[in-house]
Amino acid sequence: MDRAFVNAHCATLPGAELSDPWGGGHDAWKVGGRMFACIGVANDGVSVKTPDTETAGLLIEMGRAERAPYFHRSWVRIPWGLVDAGEMRDRLDTSYDIVRSGLAKKVRAGLAPRPGP
Fold first, then answer.
1. How many domains are there within the chain?
2. pLDDT confidence tier of residue 9, bands split at 50, 70 and 90
3. Is the pTM here over 0.85, yes or no?
């Protein structure tokens, strides 16, 4: 997995937009103005949101992710090469779904449904 894989997948999600909010080469994917995935300038992995801190801790404990620096404890970073393509897509989709579900009803209503597997 790499930056190109993550960017290609995120681009397929309804309403997803790429930005570089801090400048310098970050890839921050947002839906409804809220971030769901971020690749830092170090380009060593992607940070994603999990449902809660317990899930993040479990993924870290299982060796499927690591603590995402600079993010809330419910976020994890998945280093390149740690998981296969299917798991990476699942983590990105889960993060997207979590953030999307927290958007205002009017904003959610304006988004196309997310394609199923």
1. 1
2. very high
3. yes
Examine residue 112 and state whether it is found in any structural domain, yes or no.
no
d(CA 5, CA 38): 13
Beta strand 45-49 with 66-67 is: unpaired
CA-to-CA distance for 38 and 19, rounded, in angstroms?
Answer: 10
Q: Which domain holds residue 19?
A: 3-102
Strand, helix or coil for residue 75? strand
What CATH number does the domain containing 61 carry?
3.90.1150.30
Contact assessment for residue 40 and residue 32, using Cβ atoms and an 8 Å cutoff: no
- What are the pLDDT digits (tens) for 14-44? 999 999 988 888 999 999 999 999 999 899 9
User: Within a 10 A sphere around the Cβ of 21, how many other Cβ atoms?
Assistant: 9
